[in-house]
Fold:
Amino acid sequence: MSKRIDVKDLNVYYSKFLAVEGVNINIDAKSVTAFIGPSGCGKSTFLRTLNRMHEVIPGARVEGEVLLDGDNLYGPGVDPVTVRAQIGMVFQRPNPFPTMSIRDNVLAGVKLNNHKISKGEADVLVERSLQGANLWNEVKDRLAKPGSGLSGGQQQRLCIARAIAVEPQVILMDEPCSALDPISTLAIEDLINELKDQYTVVIVTHNMQQAARVSDKTAFFNIAGTGKPGKLIEYGDTPTIFSNPAEKATEDYVSGRFG
Amino acid sequence: MTTTSLTKSRGAGRAGDKVFSAATLAAGCLILAVLFGVALFLAIQAFPALVAPADKIQGGEGFFTYIWPLVIGTLIASVIALVIATPIAIGVALFISHYAPRKLASGLGYVVDLLAAIPSVIYGAWGVAFLAKEISPAYDWLAENMGWLPIFQGPASATGKTILTAGIVLAVMVLPIITSLTREIFLQTPKLHEEAALALGATRWEMVRMTVLPFGRPGIISAVMLGLGRALGETMAVALVLSSGALTASLIQSGNQTIAAEIALNFPEASGLKVSTLIAAGLVLFVITLGVNMIARGIIARHKEFSGAN
Structure:
């Protein structure tokens, strides 16, 4: 239930503006990969190309290939809807559907495409997903209450439960802790550690300690200046990137001497 | 530093605050006062008709017998208008907000707003001079094939000046109101929620159903109520289009009448108790509108917890 991602020579454009240039990266299955780098370096943009979410913005397009276990996400006839069902995403700000109960939030993705599910199956799935997101004990008595009534950290874990309920191959996380307090952040980090037993996890983070704590491999993105495209500078095992990077720019960034 | 420096405040800034708060309070009170004034006027003027002996009222059987066919007629015309206009308006609004390319969307939005600016007498003229004529063959067909339904019972009106035609004209009139309001609501759906749906593998339509429509629900209800308000009170278009008469179940025969059109057509020649009767009819219309709005508020409030406002 997890697949690897191989990216070949990927360029990302917003209309004519080249936002990310020439990314080559191989992301292993059942591992946590962290993307770090300064603001505006294109790491979130790149992350969103991994499940074709960047296409939501008019004019966004890519050149190159993203292979999910060998299948090109950008091949002819590939439906972005199918891609997104296999590659889940957790966003920067918790975004449970405010008009749905906690239970319906978890089931939201499962019920898509007219997929019918019996009440018994649904109950099992809701419990399993919430257990998987370490949220079950906190919400089991109020599954019918709206998801927006939970705390920020709980909402984010609800979003993770919603993402894993559809049993994706890969989970993308776009700065999932940036709106959370340290305790909630810790809860999410613990969860990421558990998730990698079953899923391929890719996480964008501004917090270098977080990258060091949760990830197996780290990719450092940088940008030469305003208006220039973001590039992948260095990619390697997390301990290497943080203690013995090959590139000067990486060392400056992880040691805080950046800019 | 002494503590007195804390008790002093910047005079000018505070004064601005006070002026603004007084102004908003006054505006709020004014609305209530106007509403109360209208209700009071209607009640006082209508009083003679409400207590008059039955045989003095038009029709000779008391106020209630006089008013209830008008109430039913008003409701029929408005319901026809909403049943036709609401789905179309929501469809057009969704197309403008979520489907159309940006350039087309702004042009289309502008045209819809223009529709709202057309005076009602023009809609009425269009209804009587064009629509009624063109639509009467369809009424004949309905009478022939669906005549077993009481609402399509024949013989159909030869002129096409029926309550159904009036309802269709009203639908065209309320369409731009509902469309432009719901469009604004749909555009306010948080990007975050739309992306959440898409990231789960939702198609565009599923995204709309999961996020845009539930988020916009209170707004849709409010928009429909505003449309209903216009349909209930619309005078000129109905007065022109409808060839009025006694209450009939059939929508394709001439007959039926709405309160607003009844008042407009009879007021110029009315005097004495007749005036009171018409004003009492206006009071009834006022109460209906008020009731409809309160029901709508109730529906919105019942789902507050899930509204997305928290």
Remarks:
- The first helix of chain A runs from residue 43 to 49.
- The radius of gyration of chain A is 18 Å.
- Chain A touches chain B at residues 51, 53, 56, 58, 81-82, 84-86, 88-89, 91, 93, 95-101, 108-109, 112-113, 145-146, 148-149, 159, 162-163, 166 (CB under 8 Å).
- Residues 49 and 62 of chain A are 8 Å apart (CA to CA).
